[in-house]
């Protein structure tokens, strides 16, 4: 089972459609994650929002340390099977697919 976890800054919801001005980037990320779950049978997708899932940040030492060192501007952090593959940006569907397939080189941290 491959596990993809997206650690995100504090926000009211992860879909990007709440409030008067929808966040197009969050809408695209939500759609990409849904599409990935449909495309890969052995993929588990998790999203940790700093506001709603603070325990997940506190329990994951590497992520906690990165946020402590660089502040919340380091978010989002994308992790595939315990390997940080991106920091400070959302990846596209194609980039996520490549990382899941193991053909992507992890981003330097």
Describe the structure.
It is built from four helices and four strands, in the order βαβααββα. It has 109 residues and is of the alpha+beta class. The chain has helices at residues 24-39, 54-59, 61-70, 93-101; strands spanning 2-8, 43-49, 77-80, 83-87. Mean pLDDT is 88; it is low at 103-109. It is 38% helix and 21% strand. Strand 3 (77-80) and strand 4 (83-87) form a beta hairpin. Strands 2-1-3-4 form a four-stranded mixed sheet. The chain has one domain (2-74, 84-101): Glutaredoxin (3-Layer(aba) Sandwich), CATH 3.40.30.10. The two termini are 25 Å apart. It is globular, with a radius of gyration of 13 Å.
Cα-atom Rg, whole angstroms? 13 Å
CATH class designation: Alpha Beta
Overall mean pLDDT: 88
The shape, in one word, is globular
Residue windows where pLDDT falls under 50 for at least 5 positions? 103-109
Please count the beta strands (DSSP E, at least 2 residues each).
4
Return the CATH topology: Glutaredoxin
Q: Give, in order, the helices and strands.
A: EHEHHEEH
Helix content: 25-40%
Order of strands across the widest beta sheet?
2-1-3-4
Q: Could you describe the largest sheet, including whether it forms a barrel?
A: 4 strands, mixed
Structural class: alpha+beta
CATH architecture: 3-Layer(aba) Sandwich
Counting DSSP H or I runs of 4 or more residues, the number of helices is: 4
Can you say what the CATH homologous superfamily is?
A: Glutaredoxin
Q: Provide the number of structural domains.
A: 1
